Amino acid sequence: MKPDFSKGLLPAVIVDDFSGDVLMVAYMNETAYRKTMESGQTWFYSRSRKELWHKGATSGNFQTVKSIRLDCDGDTLLIRVDPQGPACHTGKNSCFFHEVTDEGTIEKNDEQVRGNNIFDQVMEEIENRKENRVENSYTNYLFDKGIDKVGKKVIEEAGEVVIAAKNNDKQELINEVSDLLYHSLVLLAEQEVPLDAVKAELDRRTNKKGNSKGDRPEIKNW
Predict the structure, then answer these.
(1) What is the pLDDT of residues 159-171, one digit of tens each?
(2) Which of 69, 88, 118, 70 is nearest to 22 (CA)?
(3) Whole-angstrom Cα distance, residue 111 to residue 90?
(4) What is the distance between the alpha carbons of residues 40 and 4, in angstroms, rounded to a whole number?
């Protein structure tokens, strides 16, 4: 199935491939679509200027295309990109920073606009690596080596977390905990355990009493 440009311009929804945030919506004609496919960067058609425009040509905020999907009717494009800078001309990461409320619109900052927290973003990237190989990817290397290698790294990083704490080095501790969390997420992905399952378990422990055996007390009793 190919995009149907017979009726004119097609809307293109641009999504950050890493975070999943919707960055912008623009329009493509057949020429812009072809240039996007050929160059690997987004090209659009400006309805106001009546001309093609290459995203980032002026600002430097190019968008490298990671994947393109077409809806069931062939008249809307969903393009996942690796953005090299803010998508919006205002300097915001996303053009969608106004929340519509009963009282009017509220401008929200970039942190409020972000759809996922950092753990969701990292897990999404890890799972993407599991499905789509990337040359020289460390995550792909871990998946190739399997559970023994991934498990060894989790144990290794846990030990380094303790050493960093005993060294009383806060930045080292931050670095090592980040490494431990990353490798733990890789372990979950390798075992096909969703991050949401861990969230649900933590939520259960936070808001409810322990299980029937009494070995999972609520967090305040940990």
Answers:
(1) 999 999 999 999 9
(2) 88
(3) 16
(4) 20
Dihedral angle, C-alpha 20, 138, 118, 156, nearest 10 °? 160
Query: What is the rounded CA–CA span in Å between residue 24 and residue 78?
Result: 11
140 contacts 133 by C-beta, under 8 angstroms: yes
* β-pair partners for 177: none
pLDDT of residue 148: 97
- At CB < 8 A and 24+ separation, what contacts does 24-33 make? 24/87, 24/88, 24/94, 24/95, 24/96, 25/95, 26/55, 28/3, 28/77, 29/5, 30/3, 30/5, 33/3, 33/5, 33/77
- Please give the single-letter amino acid code of residue 185: L
Question: Contact 88/98 with Cβ under 8 angstroms?
Answer: no
pLDDT digits (tens, 9 = 90+) for 80-115: 999 998 899 888 888 988 877 777 666 665 555 454
Say how far apart CA 173 and CA 166 lie, in whole Å: 9
